[in-house]
Amino acid sequence: MKKFRVLVLMHQDLMPPEKLNGLDWKQATWRTEYNVIQTLKALGHDVFPLGVLSDLGVIRYAVDTFKPHIAFNLLEEFDGVAVFDQNVVSYLELLKLGYTGCGPRGLMIARDKALTKKILTFHRIDTPKFIVLEKNHKIQKPKNLNFPLIIKSLTEESSTGISQASIVRDEGKFLERVKFIHEKVGTDCIAESFIEGRELYVSIIGNSKLTVFPIWEMVFKSTPEDMEKIATSKVKINPEYRKKYGIDTQEAKDLSPEMIRKIQHVCKRAFKLLDLEGYARMDLRLTPDGKVFIIEANPNPDISKDEDFAYSAKESGLSYKDLISKILTLGYSKKPDHF
User: Fold this and answer.
1) Which of 304, 314, 12 is nearest to 158 (CA)?
2) N or C: which end of the chain has fewer CB within 10 A?
């Protein structure tokens, strides 16, 4: 493989140390950034890590001085705003610098959960019914949207603002949770039908030709009967909580070959319909009667060594080194001719 000068873009607060000095990367907030940087170096690339906060000028300066062949994009926000990550990618295009992962169009569509659902619904892909509740507007549940509902931020990711209280089953809890998203999370809100069933994750890599990795599932081994089986913020960030309630992810078991093909097909369709590129993870719910609902599309998901995307890739025979190399190659190969 050709050796590249790689500009690795990450949030300024997630810049990993050059040496661990006894630190455990698995417990660090910057573990993904560390894994990617170290793997790129092990592959023989010349790596320039760059922390970005709210100034595009640092990117321009790094491009002018380091003269990278490609940017490895690990940014999930800009200036504290999640949806601004698409603007950073647009800026890279203006600089004529290739980059890994999804383009601005796919990021814009997928970050807007309502727009994603509208596109999927138009193309007859099952997704939960929903309503958007904007800040500073009257809060009212439409009569054709039945309980139970799940209340989420319209644009935030990584289960931000999601807790056991996010599942609401009456009018009072509905109003209470919508106000919580508006006031505490600070974004518009989406209320959608809560789909009872198995929680599945499907990792996909590719630009025009797509590869689907083995289907992953979140399992709840020892959760109480009255506990909602959802991926809350606490599930995402608290290993002790996961251990206490037996919450884990693993390759999905007991799926028939026909069901696997059905899930892979619908996820590939959604990937292309939403203009995604590079790599993404689809979050699904599989009902007891075999209906597949796409809940969310996640472009540029977490690619830490100890996260589901890498585990799923490994199960398909792709080592972590090969995964990072594949993501880099896909980013470089999709550069427009005018770059």
Assistant:
1) 304
2) N
Q: For helices 85-94 and 57-66, what crossing angle results, to 10°? A: 40
Range list of H helices, 43-112: 57-66, 85-94, 104-111
Q: How far apart, in whole angstroms, are the C-alpha atoms of residue 198 and residue 252? A: 9
At 336, the pLDDT band (50, 70, 90 cuts) reads low
Question: φ and ψ at 82, to 5 degrees?
Answer: -60, -40
Residue owning tokens 């814009």 = 108
Cα(72)–Cα(216) distance, rounded to whole angstroms?
25
Domains, the chain, ordered by start: 5-101 (3.40.50.20), 127-193 (3.30.1490), 196-325 (3.30.470.20)
Query: How far is residue 84's CA from residue 76's CA, in Å, rounded to a whole number?
Result: 8
- Please give the angle made by the CA atoms of 277, 218 and 313, to the nearest 5 degrees: 40
Torsion from C-alpha of 151, 154, 157, 161, nearest 10 degrees: -40
Statement: residue 338 has pLDDT above 50: no
Question: Residue 15 corresponds to which tokens in the numbers above?
Answer: 């810049």
127's torsion region: left (phi>0), alpha (psi -120 to 50) or beta?
A: beta
CA–CA distance, 107 with 149 (Å, rounded to integer): 26
CA–CA separation, 3 and 190 (whole Å) = 44
Which tokens is 302 given? 């977490």
